[in-house]
Amino acid sequence: MQNIYINPEFEVIRNENRCIKCRVCERQCANEVHSYDADLNLLISDETKCVNCQRCVSLCPTKALKIVKNDCRLRENANWSDSTIKEIYKQASSGGVLLSSMGNPNPLPVYWDKILINASQVTNPPIDPLREPMETKVFLGKKPEKVQRDKNGNLICNTPPQLELSMPVMFSAMSYGSISYNAHASLARAATELGILYNTGEGGLHEDFYCYGKNTIVQVASGRFGVHKDYLEAGAAVEIKMGQGAKPGIGGHLPGAKIVGDVSRTRMIPEGSDAISPAPHHDIYSIEDLRQLVFSLKEATEYQKPIIVKVAAVHNIAAIASGIARSGADIIAIDGFRGGTGAAPTRIRDNVGIPIELALASVDSRLREEGIRNNVSLVVGGSIRSASDVVKAIALGADACYIATAAVLALGCHLCRTCQTGKCNWGIATQNPELVKRLNPDIGSQHLINLMTAWKHEIKELMGGMGINSIEALKGNRLMLRGVGLNDRELSILGISHAGE
Ligand code: SF4
Ligand code: SF4
């Protein structure tokens, strides 16, 4: 029932002179904002249901529609903002936890925007990436401390299993169930074409996608949905999900309404039952327990696949990462507090965790200090928005980055931030067959390929400007970075100097 205290967040403006009453908007809106009144011969709008996904605006043939933020505000002050008051009204009427999706929207510092990149001038000249070779390939996994040779001088190649990526970016975990079949198909095809990897998330692997196994990371989360021997063997790497940036410290919950058909079969749970992943893994209460799971998964995959442990960026992340590096894991994935999600409690999403930039710098420094940096690769995610964020992350110490929000934007997401409703009008965060059809995997995968191709060009240009010709030479090269508008403590954690120094 509509809460009478809360004004609609958005206003639908329809230019009646342009509207030809084709009713496209009515058919396209899963939220039922638009309807046709035959008596008036007019399209009318129920703005209380509008989430500003922009589907109707994009598809209106005469461009008759505009959605704007409703400027009718409650009487707010510095302490009680319009949105804070509305949240009280919502909880007073529902008695429930507020739910949201995508990442933390609050105006906390984005350190990527306070870090600037160096460029060569005069000495150590820049490299022209159009004319000279530039290596963007990376290998993820444990590295030997030094090159080893036998008594005849031949190279001893006993490197543990590695993931080979054509560029230092992968598609982060998004489960089948939270996103659609066509969204998964787009990610799987694009990853294969690009020579990178995508990640199943905790929803299992649909049988149609086993053929993309070489470019798939299969995830094992606390709910163990869809985990079996064939699944573990299908992927190129196995990721143990201990935490997620959007909701550190809590589990997951996919409502029974979304557990239908193939989603239920893939997760191996009955149709209509809620898929609840507990907050902890019930067999992991220490690094020793984690080590047991790491080695169980290595054993199950005959020591042929790297094991990733994914954690959320939290206060003592450096110590946590040190423990994980000693657990036998090959790769640590760290997810910052801006990381997206299909659904999370709003209070958790907006108040728990720390920025990925600070977490990455402190983890890389700690592992180097302890002499165990080569034991693991570091993959970071949680709002990596552009090629320059990738370059800054690599220079701060990452081996590669995970992207998810940027990937779904490439698929057509308009960041309406209502994935939790399952009514995604762009066919991404939904299981409604009529909505799923709206995302064409041929077009979706091509857009992902285009985005990554563009980023690869930009990464090469940025590296060339620095006079660096490989990702390996950029990795952990913090001399290439300078801070602006940061205090001494922030600069010290990031391990960079201030601009001008
Ligand atoms: S899609 Fe545009 S032209 Fe068609 S009915 Fe809606 S507002 Fe009118
Ligand atoms: S995936 Fe769909 S529902 Fe979620 S934010 Fe994007 S457009 Fe909205």
UniProtKB/TrEMBL annotation:
rRNA processing recorded as keyword: no
Top-level taxon in the UniProt lineage: Bacteria
One Gene Ontology MF term: glutamate synthase (NADPH) activity
Pfam families xrefs: Fer4_7, Glu_synthase
InterPro entries: 4Fe4S_Fe-S-bd, 4Fe4S_Fe_S_CS, Aldolase_TIM, GltB, GltB_archl_type, Glu_synthdom
4Fe-4S ferredoxin-type domain boundaries: 10-39, 40-70
Biological process terms in GO annotation: glutamate biosynthetic process
Keyword Transmembrane helix: no
Protein name, UniProt field: glutamate synthase (NADPH)
Protein source organism: Ructibacterium gallinarum
